[in-house]
Design a protein that fits this description.
single chain; about 130 residues; alpha+beta; Ubiquitin-like (UB roll); two-stranded antiparallel ribbon; about 35% strand
Length: about 130
């Protein structure tokens, strides 16, 4: 069993303080890692239902606000739908995943997550006007 810290960054320079979860396996594919992260954050949101969802990707019926996303009509989120959105963002280079200092590029790539592993999700922000 290990502990993984997730950190979110954007190309505009913002960086989250990070949060972590225990993982049962120290070897996971990128796909499994993204799924694990999304399922955890959706479960946290659904348990508390705060006004703002602070997740990896924007839910389909939400609008972006300063510190996350606000659902137009509050409801529990579906972790499978959010995972599909996150995987699509990864595949289209909307999200870059870094494990330590190394970028991972394939969903089926197996990762060795040692003690204290840090995984950074870099969200690429489109340029305005181009």
């Amino acid at each position: 069993m290990g502990f993984v810290t997730f950190v979110d960054e954007t190309t505009s320079g913002s960086r989250s303080g990070g949060w972590g979860i225990e993982i049962a396996d120290e070897r996971l594919t990128v796909h499994e890692l993204i799924r694990l992260r999304v399922f955890h954050e959706v479960a946290e949101y659904n348990a508390r239902t705060p006004e703002v969802f602070q997740g990896l990707v924007q839910p389909e019926d939400a609008e972006r606000v300063l510190n996350g996303y606000v659902l137009r009509t509050p409801h529990p989120l579906d972790p499978d739908v959010q995972t599909a959105l996150a995987l699509k963002a990864f595949a289209s280079n909307g999200i870059v995943v870094l494990v330590g200092d190394r970028q991972v590029t394939e969903l089926d790539e197996e990762l060795e997550l040692g003690p204290g592993a840090e995984v950074t999700f870099l969200q690429l922000i489109p340029l305005v006007g181009g």
